[in-house]
TrEMBL record:
The chain crosses the membrane at residues 34-52, 73-96, 108-128, 135-152, 172-190. This is Peptidase M50. GO terms for biological process: proteolysis. One of its GO terms (cellular component) is plasma membrane. It comes from the Archaea. Keywords: Cell membrane, Hydrolase, Membrane, Metal-binding, Metalloprotease, Protease, Transmembrane, Transmembrane helix, Zinc. It is a multi-pass membrane protein. The keyword Metal-binding applies. It is found in: Cell membrane. Its main location: membrane. It comes from Methanocaldococcus vulcanius (strain ATCC 700851 / DSM 12094 / M7) (Methanococcus vulcanius).
Length: 191
């Protein structure tokens, strides 16, 4: 399967996951504007992160497709609506190849968080060039924050996160990318 071809199941799973994530991040302040900001900022971060894993895996000759975890999405919705707690486990890119080296697996894993860093930079530029009280500024600001948060969270060096696979492949690469992102994550969670 080519790097850019999608199965019907994958398209449905990605669409449901993105809409659920946008709802979760905009609840309880649901309005068309808040939902749009969430859909663009969080949805793009999630979808490009997963698609980059998929694309790199396919470049290494592996079968790979995103699959939603509907139970995880339901748990996330229940936690948000009834407890106000945000927990996201929308699914993952499933990868199959007879054998992936630690380097291949590490590079596949690193591709997602690096995509979030690139998106954060794009959202930061959008924020800089937009008037402070505007829809574009809000999208840029939220997109910057959430993409760095997603990158840091995914670089945690514990299974099943991407950071564990990167650390197993190359501790120096993990340290270069993981430590600053995790420091940002900790800063954002506690300050």
């Amino acid at each position: 399967m080519g790097s850019y071809k999608f199965s019907e199941k994958e398209i449905i799973d990605l669409t449901v996951s993105v809409l659920a994530i946008a709802f979760i991040f905009s609840y309880p302040n649901l309005s068309p504007t808040i939902f749009l900001i969430s859909l663009i900022a969080v949805g793009s971060g999630f979808i490009f992160h997963e698609l980059m894993h998929r694309t790199v895996a396919r470049r290494y000759g592996a079968w790979s497709e995103f699959r939603a975890w509907y139970e995880g999405l339901l748990i996330a919705l229940i936690l948000k609506i009834f407890l106000g707690f945000t927990f996201i486990a929308p699914g993952a890119v499933y990868i199959y190849k007879d054998y992936l080296t630690a380097e291949e697996n590490g590079k596949i894993a690193l591709a997602g968080p690096l995509t979030n860093v690139a998106l954060a930079f794009i959202f930061f530029i959008l924020m800089l060039i937009s008037p402070p009280i505007s829809l574009l500024y809000s999208i840029g600001s939220y997109g910057f924050y959430i993409n760095l948060f997603l990158a840091g969270f995914n670089m945690l060096p514990i299974p099943p996160f991407d950071g564990e696979k990167v650390l197993r492949w190359n501790p120096l690469i993990w340290a270069i990318f993981g430590i600053p992102l995790i420091c940002y994550l900790i800063y954002m969670m506690f300050w």
